[in-house]
Amino acid sequence: MSALPPIDPDIRHATTLPGRFYRDPAIYDLLRERLLVPSWHWIGHATELAAEHVRPFELLPGSLDEPLMLLRDAAGDLSCLSNVCTHRASIVVNEAGPCRALRCGYHGRRFELDGRFKHMPAFEGAVDFPRPEDDLKRLETGSVCNALFSSLAPGSSFDEWSAPLQPLLERLPQADFQFDKSRAATYEVDAHWALYVDNFLEGFHIPYVHPQLAQALVDDDYENQLFPSGSLQVGVARPGDTAFEPQHRIAGEERPVAAYYYWLTPTTMFNFYPWGLSVNVVEPLGMQKTRVHFKPYVWRPELLDTGAGGNLDLVQTEDEDVVEKVQRGLKSRLYPGGRFSPSKEPGVHHFHRMLADLLH
Length: 360
Ligand code: FES
Ligand SMILES: [Fe+2]
Prior knowledge:
The chain has 360 residues and is of the alpha+beta class. The chain folds into 2 domains: 49-142, Rieske [2Fe-2S] iron-sulphur domain (Rieske Iron-sulfur Protein), CATH 2.102.10; 166-358, Naphthalene 1,2-dioxygenase Alpha Subunit, Chain A, domain 1 (Alpha-Beta Complex). 19% of the residues lie in helices and 27% in strands. Strands 12, 13, 14, 15, 16, 17, 18 and 19 form an 8-stranded antiparallel sheet that branches. A hairpin with a 5-residue loop joins β3 (66-72) and β4. The termini are close together. Bound molecules: FE2/S2 (inorganic) cluster (FES) and fe (ii) ion.
């Protein structure tokens, strides 16, 4: 049985998830259905695609593998649609490019660019046809600084999910953030996706694992805030180092903030630096393999390569090394689960409670 005991809400008493959480295929599969399916995921950019162009893609390749397409119609409206024909499930769009009409190549079913059923050959005589189910399903979307998100079956609205970001977003010119393909990166980590998230959720390890990053941040001021859909860690710059201007910090913040590190459940990180936003997209590929994309949305290019967001590749390499060591350690039959630092690990505790509650 895959159920886990709940985790004590009092961090001073709580223990971490047990090792079997990371090893049990039934738990892995259950989380895919209960956590990944109803969640919001990065799908692209609000600014991509010219009018009457389409891009097919899979949502979370390696775990959900859901065929979708992003499409902009003649009026300029962007839609995220199912890319699975409502007849016998062939893929409708196979290549990115211009798109004036949607027509399935298997038996010729046609759809409007907003997904509505248009025509099907040889269906005269079919009763109760077409039904709403014969339209291509259209997914809700939402954006943050031009990063675009969607969900197969939203367990919460986009606004609820992204609410923790709002106090910062209202201080930033979201429309000016531009995706910079030349700085995007993809990594593969030999570890369970939840270990990658665990590591993100605490700055406790920064002085030990990231000596260069530690030079940019004031250790004692690093703080955690918890929300129903995620958490925020605020990194404060050392005097003289790159920091957000006062008018671009969350209202009331007096300190020179070097980075706002948000995590929104389950697999998206929003790292705001004075130069812009790096979205970390975490893709589970199996119990011991995870792909991580860094999607940079640049707002002030002159600040790239400075401060806490100056060398993300180095920080990632250091994180990968330590996360892969934890993956190896969790194979141990001698490790029963650990305890949390009440001051440094409330974010990890919050995440473990969410996971245990889903599996209870
Ligand atoms: S599967 Fe698309 S028309 Fe038959
Ligand atoms: Fe790290």
